[in-house]
Amino acid sequence: QVRLVESGGGSVQPGGSLMLSCVASELPPSAACMAWFRLVPGNEREGVGGIDVDGRTTYSEFARGRFTIFRDNAKTTLYLQMTNLEVEDSAIYYCALDFRYWGQGTQVTVSS
Prior knowledge:
- With 112 residues, the chain is mostly beta strands.
- The protein has strands at residues 4-7, 10-12, 18-24, 33-39, 46-52, 57-59, 67-71, 77-82, 91-97, 101-102, 106-110.
- Strands 2, 4, 5, 6, 9, 10 and 11 form a seven-stranded mixed beta sheet that branches. Strands 1-3-8-7 form a four-stranded antiparallel beta sheet, with no helix packed on it.
- A hairpin with a 5-residue loop joins strand 7 (67-71) and strand 8.
- It is globular and about 45 Å long.
């Protein structure tokens, strides 16, 4: 069973930065993509962006230009570098592997 563990969340002021990490216990041979999602209680989960097996990244509109997704060479650790954070970015951030395996989430709070 693949396990994903996120870390790096915390509290930051508007304009600040955070980097989230997601470590996968293993990477199935058929793994195609890893992605970040976020959830604000009371709202629907929304995609932040993802990276495919070839290293190509995609981002949601709100993330483009401020967030960067990358991974380590072993492809078992996924990162989300977030800059110029806004209050609206406050959420629980989750990583997902092939939209099948999910981590427990890490809280990001942006407030002054």
